[in-house]
Automatic annotation (TrEMBL), chain A:
<dbReference type="GO" id="GO:0022857">
    <property type="term" value="F:transmembrane transporter activity"/>
</dbReference>
<dbReference type="Pfam" id="PF00005">
    <property type="entry name" value="ABC_tran"/>
</dbReference>
<keyword id="KW-0813">Transport</keyword>
<dbReference type="InterPro" id="IPR017911">
    <property type="entry name" value="MacB-like_ATP-bd"/>
</dbReference>
<dbReference type="InterPro" id="IPR003593">
    <property type="entry name" value="AAA+_ATPase"/>
</dbReference>
<dbReference type="InterPro" id="IPR027417">
    <property type="entry name" value="P-loop_NTPase"/>
</dbReference>
<keyword id="KW-0547">Nucleotide-binding</keyword>
<dbReference type="InterPro" id="IPR017871">
    <property type="entry name" value="ABC_transporter-like_CS"/>
</dbReference>
<dbReference type="GO" id="GO:0016887">
    <property type="term" value="F:ATP hydrolysis activity"/>
</dbReference>
From TrEMBL, chain B:
<dbReference type="InterPro" id="IPR050250">
    <property type="entry name" value="Macrolide_Exporter_MacB"/>
</dbReference>
<feature type="domain" description="ABC3 transporter permease C-terminal">
    <location>
        <begin position="278"/>
        <end position="388"/>
    </location>
</feature>
<keyword id="KW-0812">Transmembrane</keyword>
<feature type="domain" description="MacB-like periplasmic core">
    <location>
        <begin position="21"/>
        <end position="239"/>
    </location>
</feature>
<dbReference type="GO" id="GO:0005886">
    <property type="term" value="C:plasma membrane"/>
</dbReference>
<keyword id="KW-1133">Transmembrane helix</keyword>
<keyword id="KW-0472">Membrane</keyword>
<comment type="similarity">
    <text>Belongs to the ABC-4 integral membrane protein family.</text>
</comment>
<feature type="transmembrane region" description="Helical">
    <location>
        <begin position="356"/>
        <end position="379"/>
    </location>
</feature>
Length: 226, 396
């Protein structure tokens, strides 16, 4: 069985000529199904760039990226949007919920673009909200929710499509200790139920939840801690 | 089924900022309403002109002088010409009225009024122009022969100079020459651009004496014996005038029948309508640019939201669709309100003209407003759709 993520010699360069910034310089990474991986590194090490490329939000300048066995090299924008919709659940540091829209509608959003029918959409979104413990907050808008609750809505949105992988970019970066613990607990439970999770963090306590920690330095993998 | 969801997103986007949506709608509303209303005004003006010309009767020819061709001298139209048109050589001509017109300022007491048209003619003129007298009498042939200083005035002149009193028998000054008012004409209403009641009619001889001098006539109005006899009458008039003016090539006068007059006047009012419609079209265009502007603002403001939608897998087409629907809803809503406003507005008399709605203009304006949304919304919408997800998400 092929790994969920297989990255070979991944390169990303911003700008060109003398001012070019090499964010990734030939990075290799393999993530197997059901793994829980933490990516750590100093700011500017390229870890966010890596996660954005893994989440198909950005495209690499060079190298190979196989997602769930599919080579994304020749993909166009339409195919990428399909991948983002079906294969990836992304959790942002700043939550990124659609403003003025209820928690339920936010969680339903990926299903709308997937073309899921209304009744089924509602059922699945409610199930996802139940999973993150927010069944009683379905009709609250983001500005009526605490940071931790907003992040849990975002996690519900990321997992509602049953993606191959959940990517989280410093999911606890904007949260207090209690909320962080809740969010990490949810991610642990997700992983325990078989979901593949990759998260970025710079906190060792967060990384401790993962099965292994990948250290990124200057756009390359510097070491793996199991 | 996804189009329905995307339309729901669009509606939510519009209602999130009601004030802005309302003002943008107002731009289209004004554009559509003015297109409908101004075309209706132009149309109303032209039908008023048609009615007033139709009122002249179908057996009228008007002869007016025309500039001479180079190398020839134009002979003026004279009273003698008019007299010669009635006789044995022209069995189909019933009567020919010589007409002169002048600029004149009338005064009574402390009031003065610039009369739109001061006409000198004979009593038959009233008959050919379908003018009925409301108070007093018309002047007579005898008044013409004696060159009496009498005048028949239109309703507007009467109202301006003699408000609330009976003008008949009073003496008013025309360019400082005293004229006795013998009658007031019944109001006819305005004929398009001209107030048909702002006139005064005096005997030809008196007018020439006092105001215009004995140069060329402004017109000779010929009445044929019947509408059927009009072509014969026209031929006879042409023969007589060609003989008298020794015409071999191009004539130095012009004969217009009521039909031709109608065509000429209709052409004028059509130009007027086109002018009005283009002004209105410009305002519709401005409304459309308003939509582009607002949609660009909306897109910029919601870049992050677009990024979020893309991150969860919204394809380009659905982002494009969402913003196109927003723009089209704005313009359709504005268009519908504009149609209502235009139709209500056309119930009122505007600048003396009763607007007449043109159904095709209503349809056209509405259809154009819908297309405006698509056209002017497509640039901002495609900008939104083309945004790279990561750039959109990073936007603050």
């Amino acid at each position: 069985m092929s790994p969920v993520i297989e990255v070979r010699d991944l390169r990303k360069t911003y700008g060109s000529g003398d001012t070019a910034v090499h964010a990734l310089r030939g990075l290799d990474l393999t993530v197997e199904k059901g793994e829980y991986i933490a990516i750590m590194g100093a700011s500017g090490s390229g870890k966010s760039t890596l996660l954005n490329i893994l989440g198909c939000l950005d495209v690499p300048s060079g190298g190979k990226y196989l997602l769930d066995g599919i080579d994304t090299g020749e993909f166009d924008e339409e195919q990428f949007s399909l991948l983002r919709n079906r294969k990836i659940g992304f959790v942002f540091q700043s939550f990124n919920l659609v403003p003025r829209t209820t928690a339920l509608a936010n969680v339903e959003l990926p299903l709308v673009y997937a073309g899921v029918r209304r009744a089924q959409r509602r059922e699945r979104a409610l199930a996802a909200l139940d999973l993150v413990g927010l069944k009683d907050r379905t009709h609250h808008r983001p500005n009526e929710l605490s940071g931790g609750q907003q992040q849990r809505v975002a996690i519900a949105r990321a997992l509602v499509t049953s993606p191959a992988i959940v990517l989280a970019d410093e999911p606890t970066g904007n949260l207090d200790t209690d909320s962080s613990r809740e969010v990490l607990g949810i991610l642990d439970r997700l992983n325990a139920s078989g979901r593949t999770v990759v998260l970025i963090t710079h906190e060792d306590e967060v990384a401790a939840h993962a099965m292994r920690t990948v250290r990124v330095v200057d756009g390359r993998v510097a070491g793996v801690l199991v | 089924m996804r189009i329905f969801e995307i339309a729901a997103f669009a509606v939510r986007g519009l209602t999130a900022n009601k004030m802005r949506s309302g003002l943008t709608t107002l731009g289209i509303l004004i554009g559509v309403a003015s297109v409908i209303l101004l075309i209706a005004v132009g149309n109303g003006a032209s039908s008023a002109v048609q009615q007033s010309i139709a009122g002249l009767g179908t057996n009228i020819l008007t002869i007016s002088p025309q500039r001479a061709q180079p190398g020839t001298t134009a002979k003026p139209l004279t009273t003698a010409d008019a007299a010669a048109l009635v006789g044995a050589d022209s069995p189909d001509v019933k009567y020919a009225s010589p007409v002169v017109s002048a600029q004149a300022t009338a005064g009574y007491g402390d009031t003065t009024h610039d009369i739109g048209q001061f006409i000198g003619s004979d009593p038959r003129y009233f008959d050919t122009t379908n003018s009925a007298v409301a108070q007093g009498n018309l002047f007579s042939d005898n008044d013409v022969q004696q060159a009496r200083k009498v005048v028949v005035i239109g309703a507007t002149v009467a109202a301006e100079l003699f408000p609330g009193s009976d003008p008949v028998g009073k003496s008013m000054l025309v360019n400082n020459i005293p004229f006795t008012v013998v009658g007031v004409l019944a109001a006819k209403g305005s004929s398009g651009l001209q107030d048909g009641d702002d006139l005064a009619v005096a005997p030809l001889t008196t007018t020439q004496n006092a105001l215009t001098g004995y140069g060329s006539l402004t017109q000779i109005v010929v009445q044929a014996r019947s509408a059927d006899a009009l072509p014969n009458a026209q031929a006879q008039v042409t023969t007589i005038l060609n003989g008298r003016h020794k015409i071999t090539g191009t004539a130095d006068y012009r004969i217009l029948s009521q039909d031709q007059l109608l065509t000429a006047r209709t052409a004028t009012t059509e130009t007027f309508t086109v002018l009005l419609a283009s002004v209105a079209a410009i305002s519709l265009l401005v409304g459309g640019i308003g939509i582009t502007n607002i949609m660009l603002v909306t897109v910029t403001e919601r870049i992050r939201e677009i990024g979020i939608r893309k991150a969860v897998g919204a394809p380009r087409s659905s982002i494009l669709g969402q913003f196109l629907i927003e723009a089209t809803l704005l313009s359709l809503f504005g268009g519908a309100l504009g149609v209502a406003a235009g139709m209500i507005g056309s119930q009122f008399t505007i600048a003396g003209i009763q607007p007449v709605l043109v159904p095709s203009s209503v349809l056209l304006a509405f259809a154009v407003s819908a297309l405006i949304g698509l056209f002017f919304g497509s640039y901002p919408a495609s900008r939104a759709a083309k945004l790279r997800p990561i750039e959109a998400l990073r936007h603050e």
